[in-house]
Amino acid sequence: MTIPHSPLVATAAGPVLGVAGARVAAFLGIPYAAPPVAERRFALPEPPEHWDTARHCVAPGDAAPQSVSTATDFDAAVSCPEQSEDCLWLNVWTPAPEHGADLPVLVWFHGGAFVHGTVADPVYDGSRLAASGLVVVTVNTRLGALGMLDLRELMPDGQCNLSLHDQAAALTWVRENIGAFGGSPGSITVAGESVGGTSALVLLGSSLEGRPRRAIAQSGSVEQFMSAEASEATARAVLSAAGIAPGRVGELAAVGVDRLLAAQGEVLARVWTGAPGSDEIFGAHAVSQLTPFLPTQDDLFVSGTPVDGLRSHAVGADLLVGTTRSEASLYRLTSGGLAADWVLANAARAGVAGLTAADDAELMAAYTHGGSIDLEALETDRYFRSPALRAADVLGDVAGASVTTYRIDLAQMEAAHMVDVPLTFGTLDSPLGSWFSTQAADAREMQETSAVVRRAWAAFCADGTLPGGASHVAGSTWSNTISADGVRAEQCDRRVRAMWRTFS
Asked: C-alpha 475: how far from its chain's center?
């Protein structure tokens, strides 16, 4: 269809005016909830106030408050300079901004360890992905201490998992409004990368009314969750670092954002480095997952574990789950590489190896080549690939569920963590996409792989299948590799299956 010069769409909260592109219309910075400020700072999301005059939605909103670094080229490529607590908004790209088009809908949650990132980042521009025949929605939420602090035991009406509640509010907005943008409310796929992929898995296995039935989890993990005890300990640690006494928790509503971010950073550093006492305070599992700001056990999102949720609630669901080939190579590309003691300590915390001397030797032998230990492969398998296959195996046993696994391969560069984001959106010209492109010997491979990924993801959103791909079989060493050459089944999981079944 021809995109109107000034596309206008009526939403439940009021009319929104977007911007026309060559093939799609974009509506940017639409509020899906009221600003979580003042008394709403640590409250559940509430519907936005109604407006009558057309709202000009032509630019994204602000990022949630977060720490910013420009110390390296990579840091600069993912920095979020414009920040505000007024951060509950979303973007919509559609090739058919009108009722009746009934296009499949992809709802995207960004990565960043629940402490960093924003869909205002140009890498999440949905124009090219939407041109594949989708309505694309990207969602901004609260982060870090403002989004994932567990205050249930510390203050009256205290909440937890506010970032996930924000995601759920955005999904409610999508179901109620997406038909006016040309999308089908009955064909919604939740998707995301890293903790965005974790969010997709958690939502798929949640007990939410109207929970999604289709998901794409890119480098997400069913291991990324916190016990209620560990999340409460995290909240107490943040309060202590912020100088707030236990009896004065009410000060949280007014404490400065910079003070909260500093306290958050102090706690994150203790967990990331495995500082003395961190296992006892936060729990070995949280330390093995490198952050304590994760989905926590509750009655809605994580009842037990994310695996338990998939078993109980994902009946009839469709899941596309996978990783890039060399996720952990990002450490080398951005900070010089991995330290053996750090990798092995977190493997032990994760319960991977009982780490008797014999176990340690066997584990290390599987990742030793030419006399040197491939720490990147070990960490890729531990932190990314094994959890992805576990999610696939679990959901594969659920009645009516359909599961497909994949691995993204690149020949001209490392298929590192996050490279799949510009590949998915086709945003190789964004700062992050350009940063990855400079790592490639031939940028054409990224362009060709991106085209394959976008076609494949659009097809999955339409009917829950991966064109040219094989369905998942529990315990299988076969998966679908995605590259510039297309999609094909390969036996690419022999090592991870052999080692991580033994040590899990």
From this structure: 25
The token duo for 284 is 């070995």
| DSSP β-bridge partners for residue 11 | 14
* Reported confidence tier of residue 339, pLDDT bands at 50, 70, 90: confident
| Token representation of residue 331 | 């450490």
The catalytic position among 223, 327, 376, 414 is 327
- Residue 185 CA to residue 176 CA, distance in Å, equals 8
Whole-Å CA distances, 259 to 149, 262, 263, 266: 15, 5, 6, 11
Q: Catalytic site residue 369? A: no
Which one of the listed residues 194, 329, 402, 450 is annotated catalytic?
194
Q: Which of 110, 116, 285, 417 is catalytic?
A: 417
Among residues 415, 392, 413, the alpha carbon closest in space to that of 482 is found at 415
Q: And the tokens for 235?
A: 């909240």
**Beta-carbon count within 10 A of 229 CB:** 14
417 is catalytic: yes
Residues 466, 488 contacting (CB under 8 angstroms): no
Average pLDDT on 363-378 reads: 85
Residue pLDDT, tens place only, 32-57: 999 999 999 999 999 999 999 999 99
327 is a catalytic site residue = yes
Helices (H), 242-339: 257-273, 278-282, 284-288, 306-313, 329-335
